[in-house]
Amino acid sequence: MSRFPPAAAWRAACAKDATLAAWAGPWSVCFAVAVDGRASVFTVADGQMQPGGGTPAFTLGAPDAVWAKFLQPEPPRHHHGVFAMLYRVPEFSIEGEQVAFMQHAHVVRRVLEVGKWLAMGNPAPAPAVLAPRGGMRPIPRVAGRYVPVTVGGVTYQLYTEATGTGQDVLCLHTAGADGRQFHGLMSDPSLTATHRLVSFDMPWHGKSPPPEGAIPGSWRLNTNLYVDLIMGFVAAAGLDRPIVLGASMSGEICLELAYRHPDSFHGIIACEACDKIERRQTHWAAHPQVNQAFFVPEWIRALSAPQSPAEYVEQIGWHYAQGGPAVFFGDIAFYSGDWDARERVGRIDTNRCRLFMLTGEYDYSCTVEASAATAAKIPGARFQAMPGIGHFPFAENPALFAQYLRPVLEELAG
Fold first, then answer.
1. Does the structure show a pLDDT above 50 at 7?
2. What proportion of the chain, given as a percentage, has pLDDT over 70?
3. What is the pLDDT of residues 27-79, one digit of tens each?
4. Based on the domain organization, do 213 and 307 belong to the same domain?
5. How many Cα atoms sit within 13 Å of 305 on the Cβ side?
6. Which of 127, 235, 355, 378 has its CA 20 to 30 A from that of 273?
């Protein structure tokens, strides 16, 4: 049975919460959380939680059994966040004004965190993040520079970082992010002693600017442009048959590289990848009434596993909050739009380039089942599920991901 606290005590704890207080400002909202139809109502006026109820603009509703899973200290997959449940749990729903929910998704998430903290028998205040902390994130010693890459007559100045020695590993970041996602791996001496890790920021991402004269908000990624940017960078940076590593949208493009350019890579490690992703584009990421700096981090937050260290999960959200106008939206135009390899993944030749596919247990976007089904179409592909990890393996839990990565690198070295 779920055990959300009584509404009055829950609202009182939210009124004293430091995170909600930090977000106080000229905004108001009223919403409800319903368990089997019994609702707790939360009203925020001018950024301040009110002691009483009101008329909800939207209601998050689910049966008691669903909320009971959400309230577990370590929830089962698909029950560890609002968008995970919305995407994968049919009994969960958000009824009412959708734009109001999307505008205040971060507030809703925090109210639920406060409720969960109390439901687990803890006194207020709730910590800023409920995920476990693993300590300070290490800062790698990297060498950074810019590499010009021309594609389709347009020259892009791509920022790149590298560290380590040995076989090159080309590290491709996820949608809406940048090469900082690899700083955890780049700080691992067991990896950098035998491999040179090289990342680059895609155009419009991180430290790679838009090309001169580009219209803000016009970035749209597609399969051909993505492949050409990667192959252009490999040539311009002087990489000689690197191993390529990616996840999510960069895991998808790993499959395309294996299909189009198998002789250009020593091996390919495609994480969180399958031949087609449905229903992951969201117009709210480019909606003029929704603050994408708040919304996009919420949209991707539950893609990380609840066991992943808080300091890494927080950094993923921070990176996504820094994205330029509609950059994440433009990446998803590829990830869950243009990308469709269902008719060609079976023609990937793993005799010319070995292919490894790894997918995290908690990934609700590209599930373990979806990745396994794609791997089964590719003769010679090696698939492994990764328990205790989510959609951003190298970014959310680099120490755990390294345990899956090292054997693959050792096998490729052998």
1. yes
2. 100
3. 999 999 999 999 999 999 999 999 987 999 999 999 999 999 999 999 999 99
4. yes
5. 26
6. 235
Tell me: do 234 and 176 sit in the same domain.
Answer: yes
Q: Would you call 50 exposed, middle or buried from its count of C-beta atoms within 10 A (0-12, 13-18, 19+)?
A: middle
Give residues with Cβ within 8 angstroms of 38, minimum separation 6. none
What is the bridge-based pairing of β-strands 355-360 and 382-386?
A: parallel
Q: What is the pLDDT of residues 285-330, one digit of tens each?
A: 999 999 999 999 999 999 999 999 999 999 999 999 999 999 999 9
Domain containing residue 170: CATH number: 3.40.50.1820
Structure tokens at 303: 């893609």
Q: Kindly report the backbone phi and psi dihedral angles of residue 232, in degrees, each rounded to the nearest multiple of 5, phi listed first.
A: -65, -40
> Are 53 and 196 contained in the same domain?
no
pLDDT at 132 over 90: no
| Six-digit token string for 87 | 């995407």
Q: How confident is the model at residue 2 (pLDDT cuts 50, 70, 90)?
A: low
Please tell me the total count of domains within the chain.
Answer: 2
CA–CA gap between residue 265 and residue 288 (Å, rounded): 42
